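Troubleshooting log. The previous run stalled partway through. Resubmitting the same two chains, unchanged.
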Amino acid sequence: MAVSAAEELSDPLIWPKEGVARVPYRVFFDEDIYALEHEKIFRGPIWNFLCLEIDIPNHGDYKTTFIGEIPVIVTRDEDGAVYAMVNRCAHKGALVCLKEHGNDKMLTCIYHSWTYDMQGKLRGVAFRNGSRGKGGMPEDFNPEEHRLEPIRVEIFCGMVFGTFSEKTPPFETYLGPRMSGFVKRSMGRPVKHLGMHSQIMHHNWKLYAENLRDSYHATLLHTFYTTFKINRLDMDGGILMSDDGMHHISYAKRDTLKEDGEYAASGVHSAQYDSHLNAPEFMDMFPEIDDGITHAIQTIFPTLCVQLTLNSLAVRFFVPRGVDKTELFWFYLGGEDDTEEETQMRTMQSNLTGSAGFVSLEDGCINEFVQRGTTGSLDKESFLEMGGRDVANSEGSRATETAIRGFWKGYRELMGV
Amino acid sequence: MSAVESTESTKDVMSEVADPSLRALIEDFLVDYAHMIDDGRVEEWPDYFTPDGFYQITNRDNYQAGRPIGIMQCKTQGMMKDRVKAIFEANVFEPHVYCHLLGRSRLREEKPGRYHARTNFQVVRTMQNGGQDIIATGKYIDIIACDGNAPKLQDRRVVLDSRRIDILIVYPL
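Second attempt completed without errors. Output:
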C-alpha cells in the first residue's frame, strides 16, 4: 500500500478540513516538507522548465540549471537532439559541469577525470586498468551501469522541459489544450534574448507560486499599475485554469477600461495616485497579437511563468535555494525578426517588471513579509476564500484566489497531503 | 551603437583629462551624485542628467553581450522623474538607505566638453532593522557633458558584476 506523504513525515501534516481554501503555514518553513517536495514534486510526475532552446543552439552546447535544488545539465548532442541529466558525477557525486554554459565534445568531472558523452553515458574512467599492473577497477566494472542520471526531455515552443518520472504524460497532455494553446500564443515563434537577471527572495518557493496566481493583490499592492490603468480589476479580464487547476492564465484587456466606483469609494491607495507621467512613452506598444489581450501572465506548475504584458515578453523561472530562499530568473525576450523600434519598445516596457520593476518590485519583499510573519506558527493557516472556496475559472473577474487554490489542489495530490 | 562601442572602444584614441581643475570638477560631481542618493535626496537625481540623458542599471553579462534590457532603464530625464515619483507615491518597500563607496575615476576627453569616465563602486544597503549587505559592486561607465562649470551625465551605465539582485532595487545606484 502506498504510504501517503502525510504519514512519511515524522510529524504528520494534517491539512485543514476546509481544503484548499486554507494553507497551513508550516508548508513554508518545515525542512522535512521541503525535502519531501523534492521526491514528490520535483522528481514526481510533472514537467520542470530547464532552459530555452536558444540557450543551446549548436551541437555540443550545454547549459546548467536546476530542478528543485537538484543540479541539472542540458545538452545538444551531435545528433541535434536535446538531452538532460543530473549534474552529479556517478563516482563521488561532484558537479560535472562547473560553468553555467559552454560547448564541448565530452563532459569530464575534474575530480577523477570520469568522462561522459553529451548524453550522459560514461565513456572513460581514469586508471580503469590501474597503473603498472596494479590497482584499477574490479574486472566486473561495467561503465553502462554508471552514467549521469538521465532526465526525460520534451521541447515545447522553444522551451525545454524535463521530468524524472516515467508516469509524466506528454507535455501537451500535462498542460491541456487551453494552456498549451496560450503558450503558443506567447512563445510560438522564434525568439532571442534581450537581457536577463535574477533576484534572490527570502522566502519559500511556494509563496512565489502563490503570488503569480494571486490576481487579487495585483492592483492593491502594485499601485503603479492601477494608476496608469494598465491592469485594473475593472477592466475586462479573467482567470482561466487547466482542468486540474495547477496551471493558470490571468489576462486583461486594456481597451475596455471603464471607471469602477469601488476604487474611489474604498479609498484604496491606488486610487489616490496622480496618474500624470512625465514620459508615458515608455509604455508605448506595437500591435503584436490580435486578440485584444494586452496583459497576460501564465503559470506552468510548478516553477514557471510566461508573461506578455504589452509587448514585454519574458520567461520567469524560480528555483528553490533552501526552505526559505528562492532565486527568480527573468529572461527577457524579443521576436527574432523584431525591428530596432520594436526592440526599443520592449526594452522600455521592461521597466514595468523585474527586480526594479514599477509593478513588480514589491513582489521581491512581500512574500518575505509572509515568510517572516508565519515562521513558527505551526498550527495556523492562511485564509483563501476570495472568489469562493472552490477551484473554478473566473471569467470577468480577477478579484479571486481561485488560481491559488488550484495550485494547492495540485500540490496536495502530488504530496499526498 | 552598442553600449560597449559608445563608451569603451574609443578610449584608446582619447586623451587623458590633464587639467587638474577640470578633473576635480568632474570628480566632485561624481561624488556629489553618490552623496545625493545616500542622503535620500533622490528627487534631485534627474538634475544630474542632461534632458536627453540615458541611465541604465544592467549587469556584466548583458553589457558584454550587447543585450539592451537591464534592470532599470531611462532614456530621458522625464522617465527619471517618473521613477522618482513612483518611489514616493506608488512603490511600497521596507525602509533602507545606501552607502556608496567609489574608487578613483579614470577620465578621458572625447572632445572639449565631453568626457568619458569609469568609476568602480560598491553599495552597502542598511535596512531599518540594522541588517547590512553589500548589494551591488561594479562600475559606472559614464559620458559626461561639461560646458563651463556644470557637469551633467549624458549617459550612465551602472554595470553590476553580479546578475543577482538581493530582494529588489528601488533607489537608483
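Takeaways: Strands of chain B lie at 15-16, 49-59, 72-74, 96-102, 106-111, 114-127, 132-145, 152-160, 164-166. Chain B touches chain A through 36 residues (CB under 8 Å).
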